[in-house]
Specification:
By secondary structure, the protein is an alpha+beta fold. It contains 11 helices and 12 strands. A 7-stranded mixed β-sheet has the order 2-3-4-11-5-6-7, with helices on both faces. It has a 3-stranded antiparallel β-sheet with strand order 9-8-10, with no helix packed on it. It starts with a strand and ends in a 7-residue tail after the last helix.
Length: 353
């Protein structure tokens, strides 16, 4: 039977594993809370199911607990930081706090973060920014096993390379657009595989480059020893956005890009280029607030299309899901829970009870 846990209990169990893997309690609590927030938000792909991979990455040496950012450049409205392969939930937050403070001071900040371990749900960082009235734009690349095929290509050549944009709306909940440039996040395929589900056509190709509905082709090695690949969203347009994320999040930040054969390393290294803007400092605050709300209201007036409940905006599904799962608990499927329990056992802690 799937396991249903309330957020505080799930956070405590995950934190226990991370402490056993070498994190100090404060770090373990912060990382666990971030993962559980992803589950609460409906993004199980970026939630507690990542714990087994994190544990493996620590044991392999690709993820270093209790590590913070190192400043490489501090030039007014430009910051360059090295995450030193620390937990992305930690170094990403540290980087955002520095960048937001600088944006409030100077009006804007271009923030380059290199060599962070898996940053998790990028929307979390946009939510940090909009809570302070800042606009934020994020380009992220992923150095791990390449799981997305370029448009016109037949195998995986790069990662899911997310893009995220956060815009505060005066007196309203913010606009938070957060998406992988693949048709679906890799983690969602892991969840689907663990739940024994198939995927609708158009999302995947197998290890021979043929269309498939089996999410396992990007989760476990196929009989050939190879993996399949995810497809880019929007055909050539999503592919182009993915390349932009690789060039900006990877090359421009100094974090590096993927251009080598796949390996079996469990670490997930992210580079992130963030642009932060303070509308108040830009001088357009009043018109920004007025025009943003007028446009949102204009869109809301559109009649619901057949089969839809009406117009919605990026960030709304996550907020609804948080309220629901806070009440009803977070469901973790059997296979994922077994992987989490096994990860705990690897570092000498028992959480199955």
């Amino acid at each position: 039977m799937p396991k249903t846990l309330q957020a505080p209990e799930l956070t405590a169990r995950v934190a226990r594993i991370l402490i056993a893997a070498g994190s100090l309690p404060e770090e373990a609590q912060a990382v666990a809370a971030n993962l559980v927030l992803a589950n609460l938000s409906g993004h199980d792909s970026h939630g507690v199911g990542m714990v087994p991979r994190y544990v493996d990455a620590v044991l392999e040496g690709g993820l270093t607990p209790n590590t913070g950012t190192r400043t490489l450049l501090d030039a007014g409205s430009m910051l360059s930081l090295d995450g030193q392969r620390g937990y992305g939930q930690i170094v990403g937050t540290q980087a955002m706090e520095l960048g937001m403070a600088r944006a409030r001071q100077t009006g804007s900040c271009i923030l380059a973060l290199a060599n962070a371990h898996h940053l998790g749900r990028i929307g979390h960082f946009a939510e940090m920014a909009v809570a302070q009235g800042l606009v934020s734009i994020h380009f992220v690349n992923v150095q791990s096993r390449p799981v997305v095929a370029p448009w016109g290509g037949g195998d995986g050549r790069y990662g899911t390379n997310p893009c995220c944009i956060g815009v505060p709306l005066a007196g309203k909940e913010p606009f938070v657009l957060d998406f992988a440039t693949s048709r679906v996040a890799q983690g969602k395929m892991r969840v689907a595989h663990n739940e024994g589900k198939r995927i609708e056509p158009g999302y995947l190709i197998d290890d021979q480059g043929r269309p498939t509905d089996d999410p396992g082709v990007v989760v476990v090695p196929q009989p050939s020893g190879l993996y399949g690949a995810l497809m880019a969203f929007g055909e050539h347009k999503g592919y182009g956005m993915a390349v932009a994320c690789e060039l900006l999040g990877g090359a421009l930040t100094g974090s590096g890009t993927w251009h080598r054969p796949a390996d079996n390393a469990r670490a997930v290294i992210n580079g992130m280029l963030t642009i932060l803007v303070d509308p108040a400092k830009l001088g357009t605050q009043a018109s920004f607030e007025q025009e943003s709300l007028a446009f949102i209201d204009w869109l809301r007036q559109s009649p619901a299309a057949p089969g839809h409940d009406g117009v919605q905006f990026a960030g709304e599904p996550e907020r609804r899901m948080r309220a629901q799962r806070a009440r009803e608990g977070i469901v973790v499927d059997d296979a994922t829970w077994a992987e989490i329990v096994a990860a705990g056992a690897k570092v000498g802690t028992e959480i199955s009870a």
